[in-house]
Amino acid sequence: MKRNLAIVNIMLCLLSANAQERPTATSGPRPPRTVAELAHTAPWPHIGSPPPDTAPSSRWEQWARESVVLSESLSAARKRWPAEAIANSQELRTVVSEYEGLIRTITRSGGYGNVVLAHCLRRLDQVLLMQYVVSFPSEHEAVSDILRGDRVSLVDSRAMLAMLSEEVPVDPPSGGWRLSQRKEDWDLIFRTFETSFRGQTVSGLFGTPAVSKLLKERDVSGLMTRLLPCETIERVSLPGLLEFLKRGGRFEDFGAMSNNARWFDRLMDGDDANWPNGGPTLRRFQFPVMGINMLRLGLIAEIVDNFQPHVRKPIPFAAAVVE
């Protein structure tokens, strides 16, 4: 019973993602805050993980308070989600900057719940950026400028380090956690939960836990698995796609390039192309954790394949955040 009472705010928020707003004759003590308003919350509260049924009442009471913040934040993110596909770069910049502003605020604090929330927001603005550049490839420079903004590395953030300290019963490696650089650190975390990096990446091919599940029941390895493709997009796939367009690449050439890898290499690196080891441009885009030491055509073609069916069409909030 106490579990159901504690998570009701979060679940109602998630399950109503596509519901229409209904007017009400009464108002609460405080109107719901927007994403931009929430970003100015100081200090942002610590939000931990959903407690087990055996947790003491004090922890359940704390979680009930934390869940109110989670619910309000997810509701604000949903309300800010564009009802129609974004049609100009200024609107894109505004929405992405609001989501990223809240991410910066959230990641200054700690806790599993804050990492889940920051990941959701990052996923939302990545979807907007990818959809926009696939819809309007000639505006790649505007998207690149947005992506060069003040974006927090989720896996290196204060929130992540605090979560690992609280939730992972193992000492960090010598020199501390370096999740943006070392696969071994991820494997150490996964092995703590009786799985492995390989096991989680393979299982991730068949889907990762929904946000509603992560907030109903603590699942650190599931959350970490969701972060891997998010970081790959942030560090390699999306900036690599923008560089491809900057250098005159065209989506219609993907088929021919897939049959002639040197064509892709020459486009990206010109006379410095060093097939199959890649030239300096290709090797700028790396994520060693996933074994990615250079940009590959398949990584950017995947974005285009996924978003071309949704060119200039609204994407449901639930699909974007993978509820």
Features:
single chain; about 325 residues; mainly alpha; globular
Explained architecture:
The chain has a domain at 2-7 and 43-235 and 307-321. By secondary structure, the protein is mainly α. The longest helix has 27 residues, at 220-246. The two termini are 23 Å apart. 39% of the residues are buried. Residues 11-27 have low confidence and may be disordered. Helix 1 (2-15) packs parallel to helix 3 (57-80) and helix 4 (89-106) packs antiparallel against helix 5. The protein has 15 helices and no strands. The chain has helices at residues 2-15, 35-38, 57-80, 89-106, 112-135, 140-147, 158-167, 183-192, 197-204, 211-216, 220-246, 254-258, 261-269, 297-307, 317-321.
Find the count of extended strands (DSSP E, 2+ residues).
Answer: 0
| Helical percentage | 55-70%
Contiguous runs where pLDDT drops below 50 for at least 5 residues: 11-27
Based on secondary structure, the structural category is mainly alpha
Number of helices: 15
Major sheet size, sense and barrel closure: none
The share of residues in extended strands comes to: under 5%
Shape: globular
Order of helices and strands: HHHHHHHHHHHHHHH
Oligomer: single chain
What would the average pLDDT be, to the nearest integer? 90
- Alpha carbon gyration radius: 21 Å
Give the termini distance in whole angstroms. 23 Å
